[in-house]
Write a structure and sequence with these properties.
It is a single chain. The protein is mainly alpha-helical. It folds into two domains: 95 residues, RNA polymerase sigma factor, region 2, helix turn helix motif (Rna Polymerase Sigma Factor, Chain: A), CATH 1.10.1740.10; 83 residues, Winged helix-like DNA-binding domain superfamily/Winged helix DNA-binding domain (Arc Repressor Mutant, subunit A, Orthogonal Bundle), CATH 1.10.10.10. The chain has eight helices and no strands.
């Protein structure tokens, strides 16, 4: 029995046939997950916006060659990561063109893409912001491979196999990257986390 394509693959196959509405739906559906990943890899919102737009330009350009041989998000995040790596290499060649600035979690004017909008007491809200800021700092300090692996696993809920496809490494390497990322994050955040734990494998 043939495997039915996932929703993203189904949309992409419509895009491949020239369906403009399908492309608009695809962008609307996946623009936030793509931006979330890109901004955390690059640690720069302005550059992330440009790269995220380029991801969908690349998706459109690749439509004619698209084959649903893997989960759509695996293919999509592979494009996103490759463009991020291109941007990181560009930075290394032209360091004066890009200054990485991590938003200050205490800055009320800084955009908070992932701020909890649930109404809480002022003290609790302040603690949440402080913890969120520390988590982002700890993530930003991870090597790129570890950061990408843990983000895809915890926030995008990709499997080890799918992450291996995005990063282009073996399954054992993915497990090692996620393990090292968890250990580093636990060490850096142990003063803020009561249990010192990290979510278990899915």
């Amino acid at each position: 029995m043939p495997v039915q394509p996932d929703p993203g693959a189904a949309l992409m196959l419509r895009v491949k046939r020239g369906d403009r509405q399908a492309f608009a739906e695809l962008v609307e559906t996946y623009k936030q997950p793509v931006f979330n990943l890109v901004v955390r890899i690059l640690q720069d919102e302005t550059e992330a916006e440009d790269v995220a737009q380029n991801v969908f330009i690349q998706v459109h350009r690749s439509a004619a060659r698209y084959k649903p041989s893997a989960k759509f998000t695996t293919w999509l995040f592979t494009i996103a990561r490759n463009l991020c790596l291109n941007e990181i290499r560009r930075r290394s060649r032209h360091p004066a063109d890009s200054i990485d600035v991590t938003p200050d979690p205490a800055d009320e004017t800084a955009p908070r893409q992932f701020e909890d909008v649930t109404v809480t007491a002022p003290d609790a809200a302040a603690l949440q912001r402080e913890l969120a800021g520390k988590v982002e700092e700890a993530l930003a300090a991870l090597p790129e491979n570890q950061r990408t692996a843990i983000l895809l696993f915890q926030r995008e809920e990709l499997s080890y196999e799918e992450i291996a496809g995005v990063i282009g490494c073996s399954l054992s390497s993915v497990k090692s990257l996620i393990f090292r990322a968890r250990e580093t994050l636990k060490e850096r955040l142990k003063g803020y986390l009561q249990t010192g734990g990290w979510p278990e494998d899915k």
